[in-house]
Amino acid sequence: MKSKQAKGGVNREHHKSLPEKLVFSLLHLLIVLACAWLIYFDGTAVVGSVLDKQWQVHDPIRANILFSCVVLYWLRHSITLLYLLVRKVEWSEVFGLLSFFAMFEVGFLIIGAGVFRDTAVELNALDALALALLVIGSFLNSFSEVQRKWWKSKPNSKGHCYTEGLFRYSMHINFFGDVVLFAGWALFVQSIWALGLPILMLLSFIYMHIPALDTYLSERYGQEFDEYALKTKKLIPFIY
């Protein structure tokens, strides 16, 4: 029987699920290594044959920065899995999200690396903005989770809803950080099609993940959460 704690496509039950988390991190590392192989070694055997053309990185500077983004995201994801995340991770979530990670990490890399272009795109002000968004989004997501983790570790915090730190400005500031992060990542790819990812992510948070999570939190914390929800923006600080 499916757990009653399952909300918004994930299991909210507190559970270490260490094997699932370790496998998740290690398989994600394989995606990182695949990205490295595609831009630093010879990707022709895999991708060149599909495209029926010679595989070539035309924008090596952008490719290097995008690969750094992949490594940073893996590091943050592993810390989240193995240190910050207390809920259960099921195998269906592991393989479902791995497919998503492979799609956007490899996709963003090969598009940004200039495989489909003949020339490099010079770094410009838009790229600076994109990288700033990526750093800010990463900070909002990870540091808000760290603040909550430290607060939850205090004995007198047990059974209470966390409403301090960055979560004072948004009930789901960690989700907002993800949207900002992926908006920056997509902008740096220099392809309008890449922007579809943060837009879809924003919509999925608003219409699926947040309503389900709010229902779970209201059931778990009762009036304490309901009062917090009345006075705090849901996702975007000061706006929504």
Note down, in words, how this protein is organized.
- With 240 residues, the protein is an all-alpha fold.
- The chain folds into 2 domains: 10-122, no CATH class; 123-240, no CATH class.
- Helices cover 66% and strands 2% of the residues.
- The protein contains 8 helices and 2 strands.
- A two-stranded antiparallel ribbon has the order 1-2.
- Strand 1 (6-7) and strand 2 (10-11) form a beta hairpin.
- Helix 1 (18-40) runs parallel beside helix 4 (91-112) and helix 7 (196-221) crosses helix 8 (223-231).
- The chain is globular.
- It starts with 5 loop residues before the first strand and ends in a 9-residue tail after the last helix.
- The model is unreliable at 1-5 and 44-52 (pLDDT under 50).
Radius of gyration: 19 Å
State the strand order across the main sheet. 1-2
The helix/strand series, from N terminus to C terminus, equals: EEHHHHHHHH
Per DSSP, the total helix count is 8
* DSSP E strands, number: 2
Helix content: 55-70%
Largest sheet: 2 strands, antiparallel
Low-confidence regions: 1-5, 44-52
Q: What's a concise summary of this model?
A:
The protein has 240 residues and is mainly alpha-helical. The protein has helices at 18-40, 44-51, 60-84, 91-112, 125-152, 173-189, 196-221, 223-231, and strands at 6-7, 10-11. It folds into 2 domains: 10-122, no CATH class; 123-240, no CATH class.
